[in-house]
Structures are given as C-alpha cells and as structure tokens.
C-alpha cells in the first residue's frame, strides 16, 4: 500500500514593505502575519515533511508574476518535492517556475480559464509536474452536477478563481474529471468553507472528488490535528493531507501526526 503523505503549506503574500511573508487566515480571509517563507521552509524540511507547498496567494488576483526569487531561495532549503502555485498562466510560467527550483506547479485560475494549458503543460514537462488546484465552496441550489449531503442538506461544490474571490459556476467534480483527462498528475482540493477553522477537512467534498477520479488527491483546509488526517485518509480516500496552522503554531509536529497515523494503521513514512 502506498504511504500517505503529510504536506505543510505556506501561503505567501507581499507585506507592507513589499517583502514576501507567510500569512494564515480563516475562510481565505483575515490574514495574519506568520513568518518568513525561507526560514519556515527550512524548518519543515528538517521536520520530516514528505513534500512542501508554496502558494503565492495574491499573484493571480493582482495579475502579477509569482515570486520566483523567493521560490529559488526556498528550493535551496528543501530537499523534498516542492510544489509552487499562484500566478502561473502560461507554458513559459510553468517552465520558469520549474527552472527556479519547483518540482511541480499548482494551477487554478489559468487552468479553468484555459483548460488546454493542462494538456500543454503535461505534454511539455510531464503529468507529474502538473497539479490542478481547486478552491471549492458549497452551494445549496440546483445549478450543480454532483451533489453530497452536508449536515442534512444537499449541496454541490463550485470552483472559484482568483484566490476564492470569484465563482465560476463550474462543478468541482466535473472539473476534476476533466482536468484528469487533460493530463493533470495530481489534484489539490481546497475547501473555502473549512479553511483555517481547524474543525476538520471537508470530507464530503474530498470524498466526492476521490470517488470520481483515479488521480492522486491532496486534501486541504480545516485540519485541526492528527484525528482529522486519519479521517480524510480513511473516510474520504485522500492520498495526502495538507495542513498549515497546526504546524505553523507548533500545535502538533509532523512527527506527532505521523506517529498517530502509524499507531492507527495508516501507512506513512517515518
């Protein structure tokens, strides 16, 4: 059985002085300064993370380039697979991000606006480099394709773009299936509804995607501890669990999470 991956993530933005900084928020809002991206990357590499994710959270919304200088500095500090997302719009952007030291690129807005970018990226650099990120939110109406029950109500999950600022009307499960068919090597599923809450991952969302694709799925948003990792692996079928706050604020170490999972018969790399 393949081991489950534990992945810390940093959300990076520019501070008031224009310097890259890590921020943590709730429901994609109320962002608070958390630390320096390069220093945090170094700590997670030493802590036993399986992979590391660097997200430039305002590049797409602001229409600017990804912070490649910072990406390069982070890449110098991590010796595990590095995924970089935010502001990646073209084949050249993918190329330059990989050249800066990323092993994979995470694409959201540009892929939804131009799905052929997935195919072009997979053909040029390999499917293993192309991660499609989905910022999902629940909708309780009749506009969706795939429905799940959440707290006794039927809902579907909508893809959003530009850091969750704009809805698209596109069903997450339908889009995940399309992205897979175009060559995506991995799906990175974020829930706006559970982001930063520490109340657990969005199990209905994650399970809906996992049940409909064969591509590996990274579950994100809402992790409050090892029990939540266990639940998203066993109940939803995720291949990897991503977390930020619990690691950033030393509530749990990566070792704590892995030992808990190992004790509960979930295969992990210790």
UniProtKB/TrEMBL annotation:
Task performed by this protein: IGPS catalyzes the conversion of PRFAR and glutamine to IGP, AICAR and glutamate. The HisF subunit catalyzes the cyclization activity that produces IGP and AICAR from PRFAR using the ammonia provided by the HisH subunit.
The record's listing under NCBIfam families reads:
hisF (TIGR00735)
Pathway of action? Amino-acid biosynthesis; L-histidine biosynthesis; L-histidine from 5-phospho-alpha-D-ribose 1-diphosphate: step 5/9
Question: Which cellular compartments is it found in?
Answer: Cytoplasm
Q: Where is the active site?
A: 11, 135
HAMAP family from the entry?
A: HisF (MF_01013)
Does the record carry Mitochondrion as a key word? no
Family designation? Belongs to the HisA/HisF family.
Q: Which organism is it from?
A: Haloferax larsenii
The gene is hisF
Give the UniProt keywords, A-Z.
Answer: Amino-acid biosynthesis, Cytoplasm, Histidine biosynthesis, Lyase
- Keyword rRNA processing part of the UniProt annotation: no
Query: Can you name this protein?
Result: Imidazole glycerol phosphate synthase subunit HisF
Q: Which InterPro entries match?
A: Aldolase_TIM, His_biosynth, HisF, IGPS_HisA/HisF, RibuloseP-bd_barrel
- Give the catalysed reaction(s), semicolon-separated: 5-[(5-phospho-1-deoxy-D-ribulos-1-ylimino)methylamino]-1-(5-phospho-beta-D-ribosyl)imidazole-4-carboxamide + L-glutamine = D-erythro-1-(imidazol-4-yl)glycerol 3-phosphate + 5-amino-1-(5-phospho-beta-D-ribosyl)imidazole-4-carboxamide + L-glutamate + H(+)
EC nos = 4.3.2.10
Subunit composition? Heterodimer of HisH and HisF.
Signal peptide bounds: none
